[in-house]
Specification:
Elements lengths: L3 E3 L18 E4 L3 E5 L4 H10 L2 E2 L11 H7 L2 E2 L2 E2 L4 E8 L4 E5 L5 E2 L2 E2 L6 E9 L1 E2 L2 H18 L19 H7 L6 E2 L2 E3 L7 E3 L5 H19 L8 E3 L1
Parallel strand pairs: 1-16
Antiparallel strand pairs: 2-3, 3-11, 4-12, 5-6, 7-8, 7-11, 9-10, 13-14, 14-15
Helix pairs in contact: 1-3
Length: 235
Amino acid sequence: MSNMVIKDGRINRAFISVKNGFSHIEKKGALGITAGAGVTIEELMNFAAKNGLSGMEFMAGIPGSVGGAVFMNAGAFGESFDKVIKAVYIADKRGKIRKIENKKGVFSYRKSVFMKKQCVITGAELKLVKSTPAKVKNRVKHIIELRKQKHPQEPSAGSFFKNKFPEYTAGRVIEECGLKGKKIGGAAVSEKHANFIVNKGNATFNDVVKLAALVKKTVFKKKGIHLKEEVRYIR
């Protein structure tokens, strides 16, 4: 699971795994892919590359699933998943499967209407552009190398705070506030990219939450900017 910070110990919640029942992936027409919510981003990238379908290479290396990527409108390098989403399939609270077309208001930066709906995302239909397997594979390889260069390799929940284009990027303002390397317990602001809070080996949930609060307080005091979490806390 990515983009989540989960409380230590027991959590009194129900979790639904969609990996086994919703892991189908297939071409839809000449330029489309239909993928279940349980398909990993890596599996999706490999399928697209094999079929010479381009348009979502920026997602390469994101450690999540199609369902999670739809839910939070995942993305990287200034682009978001909704760019290639044609429709989303959900099971509503009555268990009925519904198709939600991607139209204005369904997605925004790191948000989707599904965050507030009582539903389970079961899959998505994607619309891509024709390329060649070699070109797509090379682009995916480039993006993964770029991630390794720019992002820390220690355990983390991914990008921690939301950017606000074009006004600021969270990593830049955190770095300008001198917070790179700041630690609380086992949690630290990454020295490589300041918008990552990394686990140095023994970080607790509270370590991460306290460090995030300190970062937000410092950035507001020095920059007048209210940072908002991109990650979700599961308590």
